[in-house]
């Protein structure tokens, strides 16, 4: 397992600090942004309805939003329009959910076409992450979904929404995803990562980005501090 020399910075810069609860308020988002800035996270990942976000001018903080979330059953036209609007309202990164049923049916041509349409809506240097909901897929389906994402021009493949009953990220899925995409894309692990050991295991398996809601507790554990109590989150 890797040792991070400055966990309060090196680990934080891998984190998409995430808040996607349906009951989230504008006040919650404002507090979430402030916490992300304080902790040194790479980005905040939020629902698109909160755009545009008020990010401090001197903050090194990217904005990620979800598209087709959480089911992936939106039409391609809706996902594409959602991504286009989000980018126009300040999103730097888009985390889109594939049609998981299409992947289960082996229709990776449809999965690729869906992703490619959203990709065209995100001009450079915008980043596209593709959520495959790995816990709901068999290994061959994970491989097929990752190959479709790379073929469509995705920058990342991502394990999970954090909302599927099948579960979130696993070391096995992250390792398989990284083996599949190689250097053609990066891997984001998300869903159920609640401890420092979880986070480091995902990085060791090949993840370069982590979707966390309990960021403060994990960074406190990395720094050897006592974390503040946190509210359990499904993400």
TrEMBL record:
Gene Ontology molecular functions: deoxyribose-phosphate aldolase activity
What residues sit in the active site?
95 (proton donor/acceptor), 158 (schiff-base intermediate with acetaldehyde), 188 (proton donor/acceptor)
User: Where does it mainly reside?
Assistant: cytoplasm
A Pfam family this protein belongs to?
A: DeoC
| Alphabetical list of InterPro entries matching this protein | Aldolase_TIM, DeoC, DeoC/FbaB/LacD_aldolase, DeoC_typeI
Q: Which GO terms describe its biological process?
A: 2-deoxyribose 1-phosphate catabolic process; carbohydrate catabolic process; deoxyribonucleotide catabolic process
Q: Which domain of life is it from?
A: Bacteria
The chemistry this enzyme catalyses reads: 2-deoxy-D-ribose 5-phosphate = D-glyceraldehyde 3-phosphate + acetaldehyde
Keyword tags: Cytoplasm, Lyase, Schiff base
For this protein, the Enzyme Commission number is 4.1.2.4
Where in the cell does this protein reside?
Answer: Cytoplasm
Give, as in the UniProt entry, the pathway in which the protein acts.
Answer: Carbohydrate degradation; 2-deoxy-D-ribose 1-phosphate degradation; D-glyceraldehyde 3-phosphate and acetaldehyde from 2-deoxy-alpha-D-ribose 1-phosphate: step 2/2
Which GO terms of the cellular component aspect does the record hold?
Answer: cytoplasm
Family membership = Belongs to the DeoC/FbaB aldolase family. DeoC type 1 subfamily.
Q: Which NCBIfam families does the record cross-reference, listed alphabetically?
A: deoC
Q: Please explain the role this protein plays, according to its UniProt record.
A: Catalyzes a reversible aldol reaction between acetaldehyde and D-glyceraldehyde 3-phosphate to generate 2-deoxy-D-ribose 5-phosphate.
Q: What name does the UniProt record give this protein?
A: Deoxyribose-phosphate aldolase
């Amino acid at each position: 397992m890797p040792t991070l020399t400055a966990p309060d910075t090196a680990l934080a810069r891998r984190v998409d600090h995430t808040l996607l609860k349906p009951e989230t308020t504008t006040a919650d988002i404002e507090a979430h942004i402030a916490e992300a800035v304080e902790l040194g996270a790479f980005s905040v990942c939020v629902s698109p309805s909160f755009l545009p976000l008020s990010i401090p001018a001197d903050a090194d903080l990217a904005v990620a939003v979800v598209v087709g979330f959480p089911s992936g059953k939106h039409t391609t036209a809706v996902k594409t329009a959602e991504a286009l609007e989000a980018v126009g309202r300040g999103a730097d990164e888009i985390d889109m959910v594939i049609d998981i049923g299409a992947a289960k049916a082996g229709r990776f041509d449809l999965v690729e076409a869906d992703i490619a349409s959203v990709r065209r809506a995100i001009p450079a240097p915008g980043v596209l992450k593709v959520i495959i909901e790995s816990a709901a897929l068999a290994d061959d389906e994970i491989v097929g979904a990752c190959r479709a994402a790379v073929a469509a021009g995705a920058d990342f493949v991502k394990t999970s929404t954090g909302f599927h009953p099948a579960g979130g990220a696993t070391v096995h899925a992250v390792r398989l995803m990284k083996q599949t995409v190689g250097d053609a894309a990066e891997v984001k692990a998300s869903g159920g990562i609640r401890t420092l050991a979880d986070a480091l295991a995902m990085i060791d398996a090949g993840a370069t980005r982590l979707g966390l809601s309990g960021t403060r507790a994990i960074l406190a554990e990395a720094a050897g501090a006592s974390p503040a109590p946190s509210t359990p989150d499904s993400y």
